[in-house]
Amino acid sequence: MRKEQSDSQNDTERRDVYREAVREGAGVAIRSACIWLPIGAAILLAGLYAEKRPFIAAQEVLVGGDSDFWQEAFMPVVLFAMFGGCFGLFFGWRMTTASGLIGPPALFIGVAVVLILAVIGSIGALLIFTGGIPLLVWISLGATTLVAIGGITFFTIWGQ
Q: What φ, ψ does residue 101 adopt, rounded to 5°?
């Protein structure tokens, strides 16, 4: 009877220690996000602005169908996917090394940051492409989001 109470008390103490560690680590991870999210958003918006004409030209190539080089219309998507991978890996690395937080709590914070980045990119696309947003912009933002989540997952889940 006494051993069962001791085990139950130890489990409760361990759970409390774990919760406190997650709270502290989450606070540091969120502060890291507050530093790196504006930088990532600025780079994403600058990329959208710089790729305005290539996106429009790519849309014309895909819709027109007259070009033999239709696969080159997807190069902006590749560039944005590469940015997503770099941002996801960098932010996942910074978040886990700064906070020491790994596992599902860190993944949750990382995914939230990437989704906020995608919302910022969507709002930026609405403001940059005033005459209608090409389909490849949405595909690029989706690729950025998915690859960034993969990069964050590398450090939060696989890197344990």
A: -85, 130
